[in-house]
Design a protein that fits this description.
The complex is a heterodimer of chains A (221) and B (261). Chain A is an alpha/beta fold. Chain A has a single domain, classed as 3-Layer(aba) Sandwich (Rossmann fold), CATH 3.40.50. Chain A is built from 6 helices and 12 strands. The longest helix of chain A is centred in the last third of the chain and has 19 residues. The termini of chain A are close together. Chain B has a single domain, classed as Aldolase class I (TIM Barrel). In chain B, strands 2-5-6-7-8-11-12-13 form an 8-stranded parallel barrel, surrounded by 6 helices. The longest helix of chain B has 12 residues. Chain B is globular, with a radius of gyration of 18 Å. The chains are: A alpha/beta (221), B alpha/beta (261).
Chain lengths: 221, 261
């Protein structure tokens, strides 16, 4: 039944809509790559057989509260435990971590690390302009992500960063701003978090999302 | 897939500063201005945004300078514009309430640009920054100099003078939650004679958030001068947008290395 259904309709993704995210941009980019992006405000509208995107701009603790109020926490934890594909973007990736300096609540706790605010001065004593807003090289080698990522530039816009984990498998791809190392990609089971904004990174971001989607669909059949 | 035993750390080359396209609309029509006056029609903003997106522009700022209030028509027009942008895009013009901010962000814009609202309602800036993060709130500061008032901040697309000095106002914007400043020299707008680098240097020195320079760019040399003066990013309008035949927009967007080499 499920197979027949997925063959007859275009591929779909669920985009978790917390009301404060840039869901418009994410939705637009997924539509552009030829899939059907569905905004969902509560897990009762979603099902566990379709890849899930957790987008984000906003405030860490407020986003976690919004997830809790809409009954997303248990649902997402179950999805994660069942090895289902989840893509976190920017704040969505940070939410996968234990805690954040932005607010006092705890996160989903899948990635054993903390989200920190960029310091006023980098290790070399130079003043850091915060937020970090820049296009940065994003060219992870093949073994960092479970699918191929093309070499190119991605757009970053963040004041907080994910501190690299002691376990290399959880933060396999790292970058830096002003000498401060941060996790550019985090991974736990089939949940993947990206600090950058592929939905705003032209063709390069489009190819990355397409490759993620193909990989994610493979896990959902 | 075998997990790596060590993380891969991305080697970074010299960061390439953002080169931002600043488009001005008057009641939804794309215009070019000179010293914030004499708007001339250039074309259709949707088409222009699409062209810059196709050229992989780093970022785009859309500024509406008309006096009409932010209404449903504005909402649908900016939503159509955002549809064409696969790059970071900001919108400013007539945003007065948190509901306006939500509409803009939900339409697919990353950032809102606030100017008059900072003067009228600092609480709105704080609320937007808390809800969407400081990186989503751009404080726009328009500066001019004249014999009567000296160098001062103006609001309402340059129509209304204030008593504020640029440095004090920049610090105020940072304190109330702006994550970035768009610093415009009204006197240089549309002239292509170069940025007011002295102003850029003084403002960048007193804040820790990124400062985007706008007003006066006409050449790669000008972009480099603004960055050397302390700007984190450079924006330009006239340098990138031309009026073509048959109501078409012609654009010119530089190679990203232009500003650094």
């Amino acid at each position: 039944m499920m197979n027949a259904h997925s063959q007859s309709s275009p591929s779909r993704v669920f985009i978790v809509d917390l009301g404060t995210s840039n869901v418009g941009s994410v939705q637009k980019m997924f539509a552009r790559i030829g899939c059907e992006p569905l905004l969902v405000t509560s897990p009762s509208e979603a099902n566990q057989k379709i890849p899930v995107v957790l987008p984000g701009v906003g405030h860490f603790s407020k986003a976690i509260d919004a997830l809790r109020q809409n009954n997303w926490l248990d649902w997402l934890n179950k999805l994660h435990a069942n090895d289902r594909p989840i893509l976190g973007i920017c704040l969505g990736a940070q939410l996968m971590c234990d805690t954040s300096e932005e607010g006092d609540g705890s996160g989903l706790g899948w990635i054993s690390t903390k989200v920190c605010r960029f310091p006023e001065f980098g290790p070399d004593g130079l003043k850091l302009r915060i937020p970090h807003m820049a296009w940065q090289t994003f060219s992870p080698p093949d073994c960092c992500l479970p699918f191929a990522a093309p070499a190119g530039r991605m757009y970053y816009a963040h004041s907080f960063y994910i501190a690299p984990t002691p376990d290399a498998a959880q933060s396999p791809y790292q970058s830096e701003y002003g000498g401060v190392r941060f996790a550019a990609a985090v991974r736990s089971r089939n949940a993947l978090g990206l600090q950058c904004h592929p939905e705003k990174s032209h063709r390069h971001g489009m190819v990355l999302l397409k490759n993620w989607l193909l990989w994610a669909q493979g896990l959902c059949t | 897939m075998t997990p790596r035993s060590a993380p891969y750390i991305q080697p970074l080359h010299t960061p390439t500063p953002r080169i931002i396209v600043a488009l001005t609309t008057l009641d939804g029509r794309l215009v070019r201005t000179r010293r914030f006056a004499s708007p001339t029609y250039v074309g259709d903003p949707i088409n222009a945004v699409k062209l810059f997106s196709d050229k992989s522009a780093d970022e785009l700022v859309l500024l509406e300078i008309g006096q009409r209030p932010f209404n449903a028509a504005r909402e649908s027009s900016i939503r159509n514009i955002a549809t064409e942008a696969f790059m970071p895009i900001s919108y400013g013009g007539g945003i007065r309430t948190i509901e306006h901010v939500r509409i803009v962000i939900r339409s697919g814009f990353e950032k809102v640009v606030l100017n008059t609202a900072i003067h009228e309602s600092p609480a709105l800036v704080r609320a937007a920054s808390n809800e969407f993060g400081a990186q989503a709130v751009v404080g726009s500061i328009d500066i001019t100099r004249n014999w009567l008032r000296g160098e001062h901040v103006r609001t309402c697309s340059g129509r209304r003078p204030t008593k504020h000095k640029p440095e004090d106002w920049a610090k105020h914007c940072e304190e109330i939650g702006c994550g970035e400043l768009l610093l415009t020299s009204i006197d240089r707008d549309g002239t292509m004679l170069g940025y007011d680098t002295d102003l850029i240097g003084r403002v960048a020195a007193v804040v820790t958030i990124p400062v985007i320079a706008l007003g006066g760019a006409g050449s790669a040399e000008h972009l480099r001068a603004a960055l050397a003066a302390g700007a984190s990013a450079v924006a330009a309008g006239s340098m990138f947008v031309f009026h073509g035949p048959r109501r078409a927009v012609l654009i010119n967007y530089p190679n990203p290395e232009l500003a650094t080499h």
